[in-house]
């Protein structure tokens, strides 16, 4: 439709707004597509139509700038993802880590040594662990799978299933996909051609520069140019604008210059306390593997902004990663005191209760999530398990049924079948259990736990060879689990193959040093060897 | 995510396809009824102005006709509606309506009718201002501290603040550094205007300062072009919040200190009067509107924040007190007193959904969709279950891990080698230095009796032979259809192959999706790699094969190599390999012997094999069953060992190269790291020729890699020769000792492992392990030898002396009558040997069930709680 500038006569379609005003209103209502389209129309319009008289030249420039800036912001918002939540560490970053201070960190000061639990975290016998040896958390975050393998070889040899594969460097990884639109081809070519921008010119104009920076950083994902712009702009602002410092820090972080990023964030905090800056700084420390410093940063932040949920949640996450489950749970409870709709906190407390033998409590938390409108496979799966362990058998199967119904991919289906297998083992229906585990493997061929459990069932049937093969598969798929090793050790010991039993037992001990049965087995084997 | 929903008290939908935004909703006692009852005033971008006075009989009632007090269509879009004391001489409330280019102030009045629906309301225009610039939003208040009346300040799209003292225009001022308008509000305590500029700063301008600054209009006339160069409007205070704001509100309640609330796009700020942050909260959602209102608790302020997830959050300072689900995304939220009900939440969505609601514990009506459930017929289910169990049992009883042996082939693949060489050679990229490299055509046919999906044919011949095309993809095959492909085989590498055979595989899925494989082998003619030549008398290596039948003329058995016209070739025949070496075949005229001679040991193999094969074939044709070849001379072990040494030496070389390469690579990385720290340094230090060093190391690495590659090629050739020689040795041993086919198979398994020859696991150690195993088991002399333990891991030996010793010993033992067999007495077997033939005990054999008492293997007790993926 034709849009007239200024107050036009009320047509059949009703009165119309001025396009820039309309675009601005669309932007405020987050209708970015419409906003960007309107701005494009504004920008396309030939100057002759706009500029009736030469006196309006200056206005025209302003108008064009405003439309340009608005479109930049709209395009950015369309793909915006909070930078704090993005975290990905590629193999190259992990292994060529030049920021490590000590090869062997003291207990409790590093995230690299997961085994150092002081808070009385549950043992792997009770709570399953991830590949890096941390207890499984109740909430999937980008960084939950971060475990640092100790050598390059191990990093590359870690079974690279679809769920654990990590990119060689983060530059090639998810950044390219998460929150950027640089891959989306635009029929008219890119809105802003970065190579032709005179960054120095824009850096002089703070009102344009900030929007432009966000566009380059989030939309184009071009960290280098973004950094150039930010560096020029902060200079132009005489290093008095904390916002630019934070942006430079963000760029440095992406480029892997953590110490430089730290400097920028600290300097920004000196000028102005901001929650985001604190979060970024803590993120840097976490990447530098200094969880204790990160904790301090959070705590100082809490002094300034008491009750800030993101800060408390950050503390809780660190404690969780450091295996200090009780403190983590405490902080998650603090989070709930501030914001009782916090899904992550509810889920984590729920799973804590579940693994500390309080399925009834866990059930209440999960039910709360359900009431709040979370409606997915994982939740029903957890509800089903809680119901089973809380002896509410009537709800168990229907929960699992729903979970299967809601499963979005084969991995989720596999998880549900695996847990159903557990239920079947619990009620003694070994045939059903066998079928469940088989179905798990049909859905996810890399499910080490299912292989292990299937092996146990085979062992009870007396199929030694099959059990052995299954256990070997399980231990090669998931070397971090102690169960396959231990079962293999027992199996080998029973058939008299003491040598293999001993090696397997040693692997089991490596995976779970505190396992009493393993220790007893090793002791027994050693006595055997001594006798020989 | 919220537990409860906002309870609907009264709601309506305004107009059709009308648009509303932040300024379009206002709540006030606009008709000055004096009852303290608020009316809801809504303007739309389509120009409709509506005033409501909701009074539902009971909560949740629909809209009654008399709720709508007034509806007029104004001719222009309504950007904002506000109610205040806008008319001079009276303290009554009037309605200000902001259009794009006009500001109108109306008086709203009602005339009471006899009955309620007889009430009449009308608006009367008090005054209007035409605006020079497009307006954007406005604020009002007692600017400059005037008592009893409100002044209006309008912000235009291009950044001018226009101030109106009721009926008259006061002045206009440009905001400095303006680009796009931000929210605007007036703080009466500090008498200043607060806005958020495009530089993402909260800026506060004193009214006084504005009033005394250069007038925008004058300035515009003076310096039309350079707007920004005028005297800057002095800012009272600035706070950089680093984001754009959606709205600003100033609150000044009795119990709380006066504060400025700013709703940013990602955070929510509360500022002090002087612009310092009192508190802030990071929002994990996209807010759409907010309103601070009074709190019950001393010193705190409650705020309602609406967001784009249709949730209305109630915060007490930063603590979330309540969250309520709304049916729409609010663009504006107000708190009103309606019908003696205090604190009704009024929300407006951008498509005209107007709702008055209150908080309550009505659960948010989230209902999990029903799982498809049927009436359960237990009998049917039981029957079906039994059926399925039966199928499962049948499937598991025949060991489901191993595939069932196939009784009849669904898909047959046949290969046919053409008897003659190609008239025109198809060889490509051959490295052989002969002038013509012949090729031979192979025709492969796939016949399918069932539907084969995505059949995929792979043809492979042992290097140095090669095929013109080794992969073929076909469309799905119909039942009883066939496909034929033609390809050519030729000699590619510059050495003779160790066997003249090839095989082809077809992989395909049958209709049920199960992958299957069919394969066949084909034999290649000898002409492919050698041609007849002049026999030579002298040679380094000679072999004599005895037979028990009179000699056969080469004219009959090697008809393809002998020209029938040349009589003298009947018992002497020369072969010229493409790679250059020669082999001569001689038949004794008197005795039943054949002699093969050549300069290279490995070249004897193919000819010897061909000879025995053709002799056997010849005698088979003559129905002569007792034909046999024998070998009586000594096995040419010494020559064989030379080949082993040659191969081993190359392996040692390869290891050396690998070590050197890794050394250089480490050096390269070290230099790189140094360079990186240099470059990252804030104060750049000189490179000190590190770059030259880097370049040099790089070249070394490349040179080493080239050398390693060459060595690898040599090693490959050496290995092919070794394989040929091994074949020969195996053949000679079997002829010599007259071994049965089973024993030959063991011999082949021992000397020709299937594994590839690699640096980590090479031929020498594999064969050594196999030979020593045989020596310790079936060829052992005493039980003492059996006790020797196997080293558990194979690794590259230091030299080949042990291997040679073992092979010599092996031959000795065979000569002394050792028998090759794997099924030796199990009592003398080592326990470490894996029980072979892994047939499992069938399920029915209950007696044999192994019970593991005591320490039963633990089930991992992980009720694996899978992770929550949901995001709020």
How far is it from the N-terminal to the C-terminal residue of chain A, by CA? 96 Å
Residue stretches of chain B low in confidence (pLDDT < 50, at least 5 long) are 221-230, 401-405, 824-872
Pairing-aware structural class of the strands and helices of chain B? alpha+beta
CATH architecture assignment name of the domain at 446-531 in chain A: Alpha Horseshoe
CATH class bucket of the largest domain in chain B: Mainly Beta
The number of helical runs of chain A is: 26
Q: Strand percentage of chain A, roughly? A: under 5%
The CATH topology annotation of the domain at 446-531 in chain A reads as Serine Threonine Protein Phosphatase 5, Tetratricopeptide repeat
Alpha-carbon distance between the termini of chain B? Answer: 6 Å
Query: What fraction strand of chain B?
Result: 25-35%
Descriptive tags:
heterodimer, A: 532 residues, mainly alpha, Serine Threonine Protein Phosphatase 5, Tetratricopeptide repeat, 26 helices, 0% strand, elongated, disordered N terminus, B: 872 residues, alpha+beta, Methylamine Dehydrogenase, Chain H, Immunoglobulin-like, TATA-Binding Protein, 4 domains, 6-stranded antiparallel sheet, 5-stranded mixed sheet, 11 helices, 32% strand, PTHB1 protein (chain B), PTHB1 (chain B), coiled coil (chain B)
Characterization of the model:
The complex is a heterodimer of chains A (532) and B (872). Chain A is elongated and about 95 Å long. Chain A is mainly alpha-helical and 532 residues long. In chain A, helix 18 packs antiparallel against helix 19. Among the domains of chain A are: 19-45 and 56-79; 372-436, Serine Threonine Protein Phosphatase 5, Tetratricopeptide repeat (Alpha Horseshoe), CATH 1.25.40; 446-531, Alpha Horseshoe (Serine Threonine Protein Phosphatase 5, Tetratricopeptide repeat), CATH 1.25.40. The N and C termini of chain A lie far apart (96 Å). Chain A contains 26 helices and no strands. In chain B, the strands form ten sheets. A six-stranded antiparallel sheet of chain B has the order 38-40-41-42-39-43. In chain B, strand 25 (311-316) and strand 26 form a beta hairpin. Chain B is elongated, with a radius of gyration of 49 Å.
